[in-house]
Amino acid sequence: MFKRIILTLLLALTGSSFLFSQVRISADFDTGSIGKYILIDSVWIKRGSNDSILSLTYEIHSRFDPLNPVDTALRPSARWYHFKIEGVKDKQFFLNIKNSEVIRPFYSYDGINYNRFEEVETPFRGTINKIFTSDTVYISHFLPYSYTRNMQRMDYWKSLDNVKYEVIGESSQGRRIEMLTVTDNSYDNSGKRLIWIHGRSHPSESPSSWHFEAMIDEITSDSPFAKELRKNAVFYIIPYINPDGVYGGYSRSTSTGVNIEVNWDSPDSLTMPEVKALKATLERVTNERPLDLLLNMHSQIASSVTYWIHTAESTTDRFLKEQLMLSSLTINYTPYYRPKDQSFSAVAPRYVEGWIWDRFKESTLAITFETPYTYYNEDRSGTWVSSENLKELGYSVLYAVSDLLDLDGKTRVFVNMSDLKRTKGWVRSDAGFKRLFFGDSYLISQRENSRLRVVIPYLEKGEYDLYTWVVGPSAEVFPDDVNRWLKSAEITQKRDGRYIWRARAVGEGDEQSAILLVRRK
C-alpha cells in the first residue's frame, strides 16, 4: 500500500513537470519583444472529482530599449512587449508583467487576428489571468502593426494610380525608408497644397499606424472625397520612419537605442540615418515653396486623443490660432476628442516641428497628433481603442485637414467670408488672432439686420447640408457649442449652376467666418 502511494505521487510530480516543461516562451519574430521571464509557481487545481487543471504563474519583464548613446539622460523605455507562449492549451496562466502599463492588452492564437483580454481576465494593472483554448498564444501590449504588414500595404498602395513610390533612405540596419507621393497629376501641381505625413518614430505606438493606414487608404481610394483631395493637394506619406525599431520590437528607440523623435537638432555625427533621410527629403520637396501642413502621427499612454499644440509664446498668436483651428475642426468630426483633451507645449528644435519652424515659421503648420492605446475620453466604461474606431478617427482628421486647407470643392464646398467683395454693414477683423476663424479675418456685424449675400458660382445638382462656423475664443479649453460647424439648413440644388446663400445679423457684433455645404446625395 505504501509503495502504491509513493508511485502515485511520483507519477503526479513527473506529469506536472512534463506539462510545464512543455511551455515555451519566445519573441523571435517581427515586432517580438520580451525581457526576462520567471516561472513563479505551478500547481494542480482540482475542479471536480475527475477534473483538474494545471495553473502556472509567470513573472514577465518587458524589455528595455538599449541605452541612448546620443541623449544619455533619456531613460530607456520598456512599454512594448509582444511574445509567444507555446504549450498553453487547457492550462490556467497567471502573468504578472513588469515595466509596462498593462490595461487589457491583446492576445492571438494565430499571430494575425488579435482580441483584447476581457476586463475579468485582467483584474489588476499588470496582470493577466486566463485559460487558453489553443496550444499557442501571442500576447502584445496593443494590436500589433508589424513591419511585414507595412511592406504588404506599401506593395498595394504603390501599385495604385496617382501614387509615386520611392526609397528615400535606409535605416541603421539597412531597411528601406519608403515614401509615397500621392496626387492627381492630370491637374497642375504648382498651386496645390503640400501635405507631409509621417509616422512610427516610436515603434511601440502601433495604434497610430492603424489610424494612419485608414488615412492612406482613403487618400488613395476612388471616393469622390479622395479625388478632390488629390486634385487639390500633393501628399508626401512616410508610414514608417523607424523600420528597425518596429521590426525589432523596441519601444521608443531605433535598434541603436536612439530616440529619433528628438534627434533633429543633434550634430551631424550624432544624427541617425533615418533623420538624415527625412531632412534631405524635406529640403528637396520644399525647395520651391514650404509645406502647408506636416502631421507627425503618434500614440500616447494617456487615455485621450490630442494634438500637441505649440504655444503663442514660442511661436505667434496667429500660428496658435491655426493650430487650434485644425484641432477644433477635428473635434467636430469625432466623439473621441474634446476641447479639454488639447495639449500644449513650446516648439523645440529637437523635434521635427521645431526644425520646420526654424525654417518656415508660420508658413507650415507642423503638429503632432496622438491616439490612445486604451480607451477614449478618460472613460474606462466607454469606448475602447480598436482598429475600427481608429479608422473612424482617420477620417475625422482628413475632414479637418480638408476644411482647413479648402481641399474639396465638390462634395464639401467651403466659402470663406473674408473673401467676399460686398460686405456692407459688416467689418473685417482679426481680433488679434484671439478668436478662431478661417483665414486672416472674419466679419462682424455693425448693426442689427445687417445682410450678407454669398454667391457660389457653380454647385452641382444634389442635396446638401449647410453649416455655418461658430466663432469662439482661441483658448486652451472652450465651450462645446463654439469653434464648431453648426448645421443651419438642408438645401436642394435642383440643377447644376449658381447657388446663393443669404444671412441676416440678429444684432450688432454677430460674427461670420465661413459656410460649408456637405453633399448628401
Question: What's the layout of helices and strands?
Answer:
Layout: H1 2-21, E1 24-26, E2 37-48, E3 51-61, E4 82-86, E5 92-98, E6 106-108, E7 114-116, E8 127-131, E9 136-140, H2 147-157, E10 163-170, E11 176-182, E12 193-199, H3 206-219, H4 224-232, E13 233-238, H5 243-247, H6 273-285, E14 293-300, E15 306-310, H7 317-332, E16 343-345, H8 352-360, E17 365-372, H9 387-405, E18 412-416, E19 426-429, E20 435-436, E21 442-445, E22 451-459, E23 462-470, E24 472-473, E25 484-493, E26 497-504, E27 511-512, E28 514-519
Briefly summarize what is shown.
This protein has about 525 residues and is α+β, with helices and mostly antiparallel strands. It has nine helices and 28 strands. The strands form seven sheets. An eight-stranded mixed β-sheet has the order 10-11-13-12-14-17-15-16, sandwiched between helices. The chain has a five-stranded antiparallel β-sheet with strand order 1-4-9-6-7, with no helix packed on it. The protein has a four-stranded mixed β-sheet with strand order 2-3-5-8, covered by helices on one side.
Overall shape = globular
Radius of gyration: 27 Å
Low-pLDDT runs of 5+ residues are: 1-16
Q: What helical percentage do the residues reach?
A: 10-25%
* Mean pLDDT level: 94
- The computed structural class is alpha+beta
Enumerate how many helices there are, as a single number: 9
Strand % is: 25-35%
Separation, N- and C-terminal Cα atoms: 86 Å
Number of strands: 28
How are the strands ordered across the major sheet?
A: 10-11-13-12-14-17-15-16
For the biggest sheet, the summary is: 8 strands, mixed
